[in-house]
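for the record, two folds in this file. i put them one after another cuz i was lazy. first one right below, seq on top, structure tokens after. the second one comes after a little note so u can tell where it starts
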Amino acid sequence: MSLEAAASEWTVFGLTDVGRVRKNNEDHFAVTDLSTGDAGLEPAERRYLLGPPGLLLLVADGMGGEASGEVASKICVTVVPLRLRDALQAAESLDDLTFVRALVGALADANRAVFEKAQTSPLFYGMGTTATAAGLFGSRLFVGQVGDSRAYLQRGPRLVQLTRDQTFLNYLADIGAPVPDDLESDSRRNILTQAVGTSPALDVKVTSVDLCRGDRILLCSDGLYSMVRAPELKALLIRPASLTDTCRALVKAANARGGNDNITVILAEGSGHGLPETGGEPQPQEFKLPAPTPAGPSANRPLRP
């Protein structure tokens, strides 16, 4: 069977908008063919015929004073595709574990790059960025998450949020502390528990899900979902329309609701014989990397709690 007959095909469109309130756009996004290094950012739908090593979709929402958030998110979308592709090209073989390790490593490299840049000038102190990195590898999707940009999977009439916002409110929920009934309306909802570049270490959460033909993947910054609530978001995604028209409709809806923040969306739709023809209810799962194997004299040392 030829590569074209066996591969999955993904049509992708991305769009970013400053919104109606902010003076500058601190969001950046990247769409990178990990086989060729091609980055398709022109304002037109792009078709990718994928074999290994796959495709990367990435949204980064910067934060910090003046223009430093814009600097942080730009570093992120520059470093992650480059480091990920380098790691995959250097790998002796490609499998799920290799791909996820490379994805997490690329985000760690971006974290170091932003953190080090932040030390070079008072203008950059405290800057950081969210990063939602979706790697399409074979018939699976792996999403590396830092911060509160989001990834969704739409399958027919179903819309499933694949990521969990790394926010103070969700942290309170995790430890059993009281939280408000309406998290979306709470003023603390935008306080992040981690971001790329704000500290030397990073804890990337990875979610995996099996894909099928007709699936749509949405990545977005909080400028979209904070304005366009889930029912309207779902209605706009499932209506019959091109990726371009759907992305523009999402941005228009966010601006119509106030456009309080920058708005970035990437939408990808899968087809081709490399994907199963049908799938049931999406079953996203956390993908945990195995702990490194201890070696040498330290192997018998107790772990600190």
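(here's the note) second protein begins now
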Amino acid sequence: MQKFLKHLIFILISTIIFLYLCDLIYTYVYLKSNPRNKFQYILKTKNKSYDIVFIGSSRVENHINAKLFSKLSNKVVMNFGVSGAGLNDNLLQLKLLFANHKVTNVFLQIDASFENTKPSNISISEAMPFLNNIIINNHLKKNLKNFDYLNNIPFYKYAINDPKIGFREMFFSAIQKKTKNDFNFGYSPLNGNKLPLIGGKLPKTILKENTILNQIINLCEKNKTQLTLFVSPYCKKIKNIDYIVKLKKKYPYLIDFSKGYDDNLFYNCSHLNNKGANKFTYDLYNVSKKIINN
């Protein structure tokens, strides 16, 4: 029995040491490698000056041709939209942007994202290797129930987020493999039409208030940055589109492009194709040029 216990203790200690080593190796690689996503790009670059940044989900990433917007406005423009991101993730992005860079105008896309205040997999996964960063640490401490486990148990943060920051992504980071992400303008176009268009639906009711959006508004005011809220287009088959009317009652200055675009301009019901994105970029510029030129 004593021999068995010694063997068990040896295995346990060896496992803990192995997990600590893996954690150290993964973290070192992510800290030292070139950025492979927009979150890392914001964190790892310093002292850039942006006239205009676009923040939001894929309905920004696939909708705003920042190069075209830059040409129209003669401004330095970047699309920091990230597929799957919610307002909580946008808040963390902005905290890091303001800490590392100068930003004059922020355009934030909102829709049914207004209903959620929790972090998405963007914060949970892409931020994990950088928990030593005080901004990230404080943000996730307030927003993640399992933060203590993530912060203190070796390799736990990598194990539960393996699809995003597991061995494959760590290896690509280690060998400095180039990514498809555009760090010049950030636009990711969708081509063609994914037919037939299948209409989704927006919520029937609306949250009384979104505390995360309130923090975003206050953060922009604190940094003397102009914040513009807007809604990207939906196809005609989307249900409960009146949700946007309810949203606009809460924020009367919201720029609403939710309706009015032909279905041939959509890749799917919630996302414009490249042709639609270029039209939307041009339309949004025309509506907002007075704001960005003040």
